[in-house]
Amino acid sequence: MEVAINYLLDRGATSIISSMQSVEEVRANIVAANREIPPHLYERVEEIRKEYGL
What we know:
By secondary structure, the chain is mainly alpha-helical. Helix content is 63%, strand content 0%. The longest helix is centred in the last third of the chain and has 13 residues, at 39-51. It is elongated. The two termini are 18 Å apart. InterPro entries: NAD(P)_OxRdtase_dom_sf.
């Protein structure tokens, strides 16, 4: 989930729908939003996105 949250925020998303059914999930989302993904993961997401025409 961290990669997805970071990727979307990096692409300018202003809203992300994410599960927050427990305190642990809320904490995980906050941590994910504040981490940077390594460039190689970002590049891989771009490759997959292009491969599937997204």
